[in-house]
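Q: How do we represent a protein-ligand complex in a form that can be generated token by token?
A: Start from the inputs.
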Amino acid sequence: MAHIPKLFGIVISFLVISSSCDKVSSSDTIEDEAPKILYDSNEKYFYVKAVRDVHLAKSLWVNMDYIEKIDFGRKWPPAYDQMLMPTLRYLESLELSFNFTFYGYLTNFVTFDIDGRICMKKITYYNEQCNSFVAPLGMKLSFRKDESFIKYIDTGKSLIVQWGNVDLYPPFYLEEQNVTLQVTLYENGTIEIVYKQILTSLFVLFYEGDFRTAVSIGTRDSKGYIGKDENIYGVIALQERMNNDFDIKNGTVIVMTPLPTCNWFTSCELCTLSKIYFKCVWCPQLNRCTNYGMDRNYNAWLSSGCVNNYISSSYAEKC
Ligand SMILES: *[C@@H]1O[C@H](CO)[C@@H](O)[C@H](O)[C@H]1NC(C)=O
Ligand SMILES: *[C@@H]1O[C@H](CO)[C@@H](O)[C@H](O)[C@H]1NC(C)=O
Ligand SMILES: *[C@@H]1O[C@H](CO)[C@@H](O)[C@H](O)[C@H]1NC(C)=O
Ligand SMILES: *[C@@H]1O[C@H](CO)[C@@H](O)[C@H](O)[C@H]1NC(C)=O
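Then emit the structure tokens for the protein with 2-acetamido-2-deoxy-beta-D-glucopyranose bound:
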């Protein structure tokens, strides 16, 4: 409950664009480019804003020189085959010191895997799917250089994760990219991604080669298993939004501010009277406010009988 006003209080706090950068530069180096808004859009679950601002990116960057790189607690060696292909999965799960709000759900376990994502749960077995995640650059990554790393700091109010000097894996990228980026998950649900170094523009890389489908940049959550398959919802696929203007390269900063979801409402009244993007209905059998089942635990919604018997805003007096 305490979180509801927080979420409602969301005043989308745009990045403050430094006024010290108003000098127009004749130089070609991106260091001197004026900050530029690349993308600015309501994506229903998040408000997404992307800018390119090398100075902002630098100021958000956290020095982790003194932090040990993680040693991937569970790995199944050999991690790379003769072709230096990452055949197996590296996993490291971590309990957070705070609850992170993700699609309206509290999460205090995350797992890093080799696929460039932060999974929003503790992954306990090798084949377990990761369908609820934050992906700054979700594709196979190679950590085989000595200087490659994942490091993190849990500040008690945020989790800051850095991927350093990693390469994109699929074998079609023979070119090294030496990517360094940082993701911060704030307790209030805000996600901030800072791309510090990428040797080639990601737009050029993905579109010229048409490898867009090989990457996920953004977030998604899972409705849970329905039969054998885990069903996803709420997909934010920023790789599909990329274009000449919205490119991801050195100095791109993406901020995703969470927007309210139905599952936050804990009473029938709050649920049915809610005025948010989603149409929320109350399921009395489950004591649950839902966007017609489009959230976690879809199976419970299906078997509850609420599918044909929910309380919607037009019948709020039935609460
Ligand atoms: C969430 O926390 C971040 C970092 O402290 C802050 O910039 C942002 O304004 C906060 N958002 C809300 C909605 O409170
Ligand atoms: C996280 O949320 C759970 C469930 O609401 C609560 O029991 C727990 O105390 C919270 N943890 C922290 C660190 O706030
Ligand atoms: C990758 O980038 C880092 C930081 O810019 C640099 O120190 C390192 O030498 C680079 N590695 C390669 C193989 O280019
Ligand atoms: C990013 O910065 C590196 C130096 O750190 C530079 O070599 C590279 O060309 C830059 N990439 C882009 C796309 O500007």
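Helices lie at 3-8, 54-60, 202-208, 268-272, 298-303. The chain has two domains: 3-8+30-258, 262-318.
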